[in-house]
Design goal:
With about 170 residues, this protein is an alpha+beta fold. Among the domains are: about 60 residues, Histidine-containing Protein, Chain: A (2-Layer Sandwich); about 50 residues, Roll (Membrane-bound Lytic Murein Transglycosylase D, Chain A). The protein is built from 5 helices and 5 strands. About 5% of the residues have low confidence.
Length: about 170
């Protein structure tokens, strides 16, 4: 205990409590560009964290392990993740099919919508709609009346997809 603390104690002053700042593993992973949607976490009393679930590839695995093992309060990361097999390529018919190019939609902000499918995450939807999953918070913010948490969306929900330029 220092002199200031002693004086505060003697004269009745209260020491200021330290701020408790906790960042979830999901948020840490989003911050480094990894979609945490298919992951589950288990926490051990010894400061360990177990990560399980499906990931896209081994580079994501390494980012996840590096990020979590560098986090304050985590002594050990147990890897129980599995890499998802690539989606099968559908066979196409031998007959050539004329494909007309799609014209870009001329929609104003908020006019575009997306219906959530089973297995979707906001990160995955942002990747599909914007080409970059890290824009998921734009979708979350545009749907704040419907969504309480960016990690919790349900199949069948109709989400507004805002224009990134607005």
């Amino acid at each position: 205990m220092g002199i200031k603390d002693s004086l505060k104690k003697v004269f009745g002053g209260k020491s200021e409590p330290e701020a408790d700042v906790t960042v979830s593993p999901s948020q840490m992973l989003r911050d480094v560009g990894v979609d945490p949607g298919g992951l589950n976490y288990g926490f051990g009393s010894d400061g360990s964290i177990t990560v399980s679930g499906q990931i896209a590839d081994d580079s994501d695995r390494q980012k996840i392990l590096d990020t979590l093992s560098g986090a304050a309060g985590i002594n050990r990361v147990e890897d129980q993740m599995t890499v998802s097999p690539p989606e099968p390529i559908e066979e196409t018919s031998q007959e050539p099919v004329a494909i007309e190019p799609e014209e870009p939609e001329a929609v104003s902000a908020g006019d575009r919508t997306y219906t959530v499918q089973s297995g979707d995450t906001l990160w995955k939807i942002a990747e599909e709609m914007y080409g970059n999953g890290s824009n998921y918070m734009k979708i979350f913010e545009a749907n704040s009346e419907l969504l309480e948490n960016p990690d919790h969306i349900l199949p069948g929900q109709e989400l507004l997809i805002p224009d990134l330029n607005n």
